[in-house]
Write a structure and sequence with these properties.
By secondary structure, the protein is mainly α. Helices cover about 70% and strands about 5% of the residues. Helix 1 (about 15-50) packs antiparallel against helix 2 (about 55-80) and helix 3 packs antiparallel against helix 6.
Amino acid sequence: MVRVYTSRNYNHISSSNSLKSSLQRRFCTVAPLCLGFTKLSIARCFQRIFFTRAFCIAAYAVMVCTIAWSLQTILVGVLKCQPIELNWDPNARGTCGDQTIAFTSVAAVDIATDLMLIILPLKPLIALQIRTSHKIALCLIFGAGLITIVVTAIRLYTSSTP
């Protein structure tokens, strides 16, 4: 128990329940926003580097998919339990949907948006008039995001297997 002192009285708060529920509420909204804005900034950075019309249209399409993924992640996180209060209050009455299916759907779209971001700059990079060794190095640097896809895929696999 943690005692919270105010000017008039103090309240007893169970530290494990309040901390856990607070973190869960924040995680289901803040994490998708942070990741979404990071992906949007990467796509926008690519737009400024490779500024052809076709590339800008493709980058905007990736941005729309990223925004859709962020909204999906937030909505799945918030609406998986009915009533919504059940997300942070384990004593509330109601039901929650299948967490595995919710996580799988979010992870699948996450992998898709990551793949889009990795594939997006490859065509302009290959078209550069530089040595082949430099092209390979640039493709490897831009393709370093494959690590996130592998980690997400491993998390997806381990969470869906019993």
